[in-house]
Specification:
The protein is α/β, with parallel strands linked by helices. The protein is built from eleven helices and 14 strands. The chain has two domains: 166 residues, P-loop containing nucleotide triphosphate hydrolases (Rossmann fold, 3-Layer(aba) Sandwich), CATH 3.40.50.300; 177 residues, Glutathione S-transferase Yfyf (Class Pi), Chain A, domain 2.
């Protein structure tokens, strides 16, 4: 898929801005704090239906304005669609496809985009929540069933946690059964797609690191068994009930699970250097592109925010060679003479 035209009005610091990007690599040039990442955010928002930076859409409206517009012509699967998102300060946001107003649930799903930003580096060493967010976000782009099951699980979890503050043993049994039912579905879907992404990520990481091995391990709070998995889930919920009462929240389940990224059998969380951490995230992002293409049958758009400034030449060379046959947007503060993208399309945002 690709964007043929993008137009912004009152989005972030852009009063008015329009581009017609190339099908290949587009280099977004400009000094620091000029709005390069804002442009990537607009591309992500128009293709995915949400921001990768904030949940508050009001923050994306230019200061002093009541609304912002993102418009784009997007080609995917041989078809061209006219997309528009209107962000309103005091009203509901509007999502429009080919002049028809649609629900946000119907807007998302047909398009895909992958973003690498410096904040993604936190995923490797910080909280398990960052790693769960990563895998959940990826699977939701592929499986509407997973998205539904995860939403149901979270709703039941919320109700169960409320009940732990005013215990009702009989009602807890009902919630335990429901939580186990949806939780098992989430666990098996996660395992399935982690295996898929590990297969691609291993290959990318080996080339980025010149031979090191990357392994992804799923750390479950529920012991796996081939049969009667729901019963095993309910059993551990019962075993943990007193602890849950004391904590006033559910201490086991997919919402407490984690991922461990290992380099040559050593946990990256504890031992990875800054360069190794960056290489892991890059490998995961390239693998995410591969997985999305495999299951959605189309290549996503790739966004790279300030990625090359911290890469040595070996890693930069491999990454640049991996960008064939995809539309890519890369932010940079300058274009050096030895840049790998000297002949790429240039988008200058020095003057807005």
């Amino acid at each position: 898929m690709k964007i043929d035209r993008l137009e912004l009005t009152n989005f972030r610091n852009y009063q008015s801005f329009e581009i017609e990007p190339s099908d290949g690599i587009n280099l977004i040039l400009g000094r620091n704090a000029i709005g390069k990442t804002n442009l990537l955010e607009a591309i992500y928002f128009i293709t995915v239906g949400k921001s990768f930076r904030t949940l508050k859409t009001n923050e994306m409206i230019r200061l002093g304005e009541n609304s912002a517009n993102i418009r784009a012509t997007v080609e995917s699967g041989g078809y061209s669609d006219e997309l528009e998102i209107i962000l309103n300060l005091n009203q509901k946001n509007e999502y429009i496809m080919n002049l028809d107003s649609i629900n946000i649930k119907n807007y998302t799903g047909d398009f895909s985009c992958v973003i690498f930003s410096p904040n993604d580096l936190n995923m490797i060493k910080l909280s398990p929540g960052e790693r769960r967010k990563y895998i959940d976000s990826l699977i939701e782009k592929i499986s509407p069933v997973y998205k539904y099951n995860l939403a149901k699980y979270r709703k039941i979890l919320f109700e169960r946690n409320k009940l732990l503050k005013r215990p009702d043993e009989e009602l807890l049994k009902v919630y335990d059964f429901q939580l186990a039912s949806y939780g098992v579905k989430i666990l098996f879907e996660r395992l399935k797609y982690i295996k898929e992404i590990e297969e691609f990520a291993k290959n990318h990481y080996a080339r980025l690191s010149q031979g090191s091995e990357l392994k992804i391990t799923y750390l479950s709070t529920v012991k796996f068994s081939k049969d009667k998995m729901e019963q095993a889930f309910m059993k551990i919920l019962l075993e943990q009930r007193e602890k849950d009462f004391e904590s006033r929240f559910t201490t086991v389940g997919p919402h407490r699970d984690d991922l461990d990224f290992k380099i040559n059998e050593m946990s990256a969380k504890s031992f990875a250097s800054q360069g190794e951490t960056r290489s892991i995230v890059l490998a995961l992002k390239l693998a995410e592109m591969d997985v999305l293409e495999k299951f959605n049958k189309r290549r996503p758009i790739l966004l790279l925010d300030d990625v090359f400034s911290e890469l040595d030449k070996t890693r930069a060379m491999y990454l640049s060679q991996s960008l064939d046959n995809m539309q890519t947007f890369i932010t940079s503060t300058n274009l050096n003479e030895d840049s790998f993208f000297i002949d790429s399309n240039k988008i200058n945002v020095e003057r807005l």
